[in-house]
Amino acid sequence: DVIVNRKEITEKDMEDTPVALDNPAFMKPFEFILNQRGIPRYGTIDPTWTLFVFYPLFFGMIVGDVGYGIVLLGIVLWLRTRFKDNNGIQLATSILGPAATMCIAFGFIYGEFFGDLLGKAGLNIIHPFTVLGVVLPFERTVLIVPFMLLAIGVGVVQVLFGLVLGIVNAVRTKNQHH
Fold first, then answer.
1. Average of per-residue pLDDT values in the chain
2. Is 135 helix (H, G, I), strand (E, B) or coil?
């Protein structure tokens, strides 16, 4: 015999309910970063995918150098092969690998290889190219104001996106406080 009692879930119950995150394997390392702030509440959006997208993107935008990215990616690959049994190193390199890749991609956009090292030597290997009518690479040292506006714009978009996710979570949990 089985006895089933149906109980209404209260706000207090939702705070104490354990949450299992269910993400694809390539996103699992970013759950570690999420867990440093606490896991999402029951019934809310799992923001692991936002970390998967935005962490490497911002890292690449900030560093944005082909040379540094190649060195970092080389270190990541070496660590992954040298310490296959070390879960901490595998986790760290799973996060830094995409970040290094974005660093290389933005390095091409910015036209930087160890800063302006090759340009000063007259060996600029990143030749201008056009993407959607925009001539790349940008010159970050000359276009400081547009880059500051771009950084502020990206930050504002991310904050607004976070607020929208907060509203969605509030609607899902029927929490009018938020």
1. 82
2. strand
Q: How far apart are CA 60 and CA 7, in angstroms?
A: 49
* pTM, rounded to two decimals: 0.74
Gap between the Cα atoms of 50 and 169, Å rounded = 15
User: Measuring CA to CA, how many Å separate 6 from each of 50, 57, 81?
Assistant: 35, 46, 52
d(C-alpha 68, C-alpha 158), whole Å: 26
For residue 63, the Cα-to-chain-centroid distance in whole angstroms is 14
Cis, peptide link before residue 47, omega less than 30° from 0: no
What 8-state DSSP symbol labels residue 25? G
Residue 60 has pLDDT above 80, yes or no: yes
Matching residue, tokens 């907060």 = 166
Averaged over 134-148, what is the pLDDT?
Answer: 72
Q: Is the pLDDT of residue 134 over 70?
A: no
CA distance 88 to 75: 15
CB 67 within 8 A of CB 160: no
pLDDT value of position 75: 95
Distance CA 137, CA 88 (A): 36
Answer for the pair 111, 137: CB distance below 8 angstroms, yes or no: yes
- Distance, CA of 102 to CA of 121 (rounded, Å): 25
